[in-house]
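Hi, here's the filled form for the chain we discussed.

Project: internal
Contact: R.S.
Residues: 338
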Amino acid sequence: MKHLPLSILIISLFVFLASSPSQAQSPRVEIVSKNGGQEAWLHDGRVETLLGKIEVWKKGMFLFHWGDATPEQAKAWNDAGRISPELLGYLKTQEGFSGGGFYVSTSPVDSHGYGNTLVVIELPNDIRVLKSHVTGTIDWNRLHSQLEGFHISAITVSHMESWATILDSEALTREQVADAQFFKAYHFNKIPRADMLADFEKKIPGLKNEQTYKDLVTELKQLKKDLKSTDIEKVTAATEKLISRGEQRLIEESLFEFRPKYANEETVDLVVPLLKSKSRLSSSAVQLLWKVVNNKKDLRMYTYTSILKNSEEENIRAFAIKGLEKMNVFMCSQVFRP
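And the returned structure, exactly as it came back:
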């Protein structure tokens, strides 16, 4: 019997291993048209994960980044007028909630704890943004090049819906350092939490004298007052405004403080859609709905059925199903009581 040379056997082994289906494949990103829009999916071996949906942020939109700087550094940042591709390239090698990159918020307030100087980015063009649905661990840095290949310029942070990391240097070509003058014309789209707004004011000298800021403070005070009202219609209207105009942390705080005796079907209708959020808003909504079903017997059936119509999360649905089962047992015992 003739034996093959050892070198041929080794080469054959390598060829076999390289072609073996058991070999781990590199994660692959795919963009698909689905549910009236586009979704990004990750294929990693036999596991498929929904990364999120694609949305567009429009030209002229303002984004905000807080960083620590001396007055001299702040002036240099302002004079530069952009975030350099070299700096962004370095930042993309770092770690972060959605991988590396230049982190921003759609709010000037909710990330103020990251520094003493507020940098404003004005988008020079429309950009494609991946709105992250990921709640587990993803090695985002491994996926950045593929996402950029699909012309995705930013990825949001799943637990804070207003935060995102920018991957595209062309989106960072209009930059300035904000001062009170900037806020003369800026319209606050969302209402922040009171303590964060107070800290924000201290970091922007002269801000408290600007009318846009005064209007925001007045609006927040009135909202908090209405949420504490004993008029259920006023509380409901305030809850609607809270969810449509409030920043995430204000909504979380207010839902925690909400008094369930002032809840009604409209309240449930306003809160239940938050269950679909991948941020902490979902947990806040669950906590309030739990208080409602435990304190408002007349709302239990409506709340449980609304949860089942709106939530796909197994744990949340199990909570509603268990509640309905208990109600049916109770109702049967009332009907057949001797």
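Let me know if anything looks off before we file it.
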